[in-house]
Specification:
By secondary structure, the chain is mainly alpha-helical. Helix 1 packs antiparallel against helix 2 and helix 15 packs antiparallel against helix 16. The termini are far apart. About 10% of the residues have low confidence. It contains 17 helices and 2 strands. The chain is flat. Strand 1 and strand 2 form a beta hairpin.
């Protein structure tokens, strides 16, 4: 009889540990990427029965023990590893999330090895990722947000994680996201799919731009100095040209950073909203304000419009989200944003049939506009 994932778990744990401890270049990354498909295979398999434990010579609960060991080891690697290792770990859990959503759509209620009844150490997992968020650089905080989104089903009741996600949506602190492929140079863009709807392309070096902005802040310490710069940097001298270019780079950095910060937070908030009704109500209020603000960029408006598609956890939430979405469409003059919102509202209506007539009516009204 072919071994099942629980019967292989001990060897998988050993292989992962050996790979992460290896001094050979690329060996640790290879071990992480190799464990990803194994975890997905494990997710697809049903729980073992008593007879199967005997067949494979397993002690009841042994599979759970090694599942916890594997996931905690990955969390440790995320906490202590370099940027490329963190990216690899995020990638395998994004893939695992996609698989879990597919299984859920097919009627599967079990969350696999990441379910709370199998994962005794889920609080420790969240704590280790939170340490990275609290103490890491801008890239690490963004990757931590993505992991929190992937683990929404075990993190949805954590007050600390909820606060981190919601505060990241409104925080004035600059959070840059730069996700680079290990095979590319530091300036090579990488397109990563986060859940199918959101794609990020980061073609700039965040560290260099952040350095520009930090230096510029020492110059622009007051409104008076900014007014002085407006007058004295208006000529064609080399000094003025350098100043203008530096200012342009700093402004671009702020704009890019705010967009990317919001996208990381939106991804995590979307994942939580699918599972936690009370969180979704708070997120809906914040999202409505974000999309109605004149300071919100086009990219964030579109990403926020797509986020509305996740507001269907309950019929009351779906009804409120649908009404809010219709209001946003009617007040918007942007055709692309209206189309994105219309698609999101259609997805909400498809989850709750009482909303379908209203969706059809609003669709006809928009066609006449």
């Amino acid at each position: 009889m072919e071994k099942t994932p629980p019967a292989c778990a001990m060897q998988w744990s050993i292989d992962l540990e050996k790979g992460l401890r290896s001094k050979k270049p690329g060996k640790s990354t290879e071990a992480i990427l190799h464990i990803g498909p194994r975890l997905e295979w494990w997710n697809r398999e049903p729980n073992l029965h008593a007879a199967e434990y005997k067949i494979f010579g397993l002690i009841p609960g042994e599979d759970k023990l090694f599942a916890n060991a594997i996931l905690l080891r990955l969390a440790d690697a995320f906490k202590s590893g370099d940027k490329h290792m963190k990216i690899c770990i995020v990638k395998i859990f994004l893939s695992e999330l996609k698989q879990r959503r597919q299984l859920r759509s097919e009627g599967r209620k079990d969350e696999g090895i990441l379910s709370k009844d199998k994962l005794d150490s889920y609080r420790e997992l969240l704590t280790r990722i939170k340490i990275v968020f609290d103490s890491g650089n801008v890239e690490e905080r963004a990757l931590s947000l993505v992991l929190f989104g992937c683990w929404a089903h075990i993190a949805k009741h954590s007050a600390d994680v909820r606060y981190l996600i919601l505060s990241s949506l409104v925080s004035m602190h600059i959070l840059e996201v730069q996700i680079m492929d290990p095979n590319f140079s530091d300036h090579s863009p990488l397109l990563i799919d986060f859940g199918g709807d959101v794609q990020w392309q980061i073609p700039i070096n965040a560290d260099q731009l952040e350095g520009v902005w930090l230096r510029l802040k020492h110059v622009l310490r007051s409104e008076a100095e900014l007014e002085w710069a407006t007058v004295n940097a208006a000529n064609k001298s080399p000094r003025a040209e350098v100043y203008i270019l530096t200012m342009a780079a700093a402004v671009y950095y702020i704009w890019q950073a705010r967009n990317l910060k919001a996208k990381a937070s939106l991804f995590a908030a979307e994942c939580f909203s699918e599972l936690a009704d009370d969180f979704a109500y708070v997120f809906l209020e914040m999202l409505g304000g974000l999309l109605m603000s004149s300071e919100t960029s086009r990219a964030i408006r579109l990403a926020g419009g797509r986020a509305f598609a996740k507001m269907w956890c309950s019929i009351l939430l779906a009804d409120r989200a649908h009404k809010t979405g219709v209001k946003l469409i009617l007040e918007s003059s942007e055709e692309e944003f209206s189309l994105v919102m219309l698609v999101s509202l259609s997805k909400i209506a498809s989850k709750w049939t009482p909303l379908i007539p209203r969706q059809e009516e609003k669709g006809r009204e928009l066609q006449k506009r």
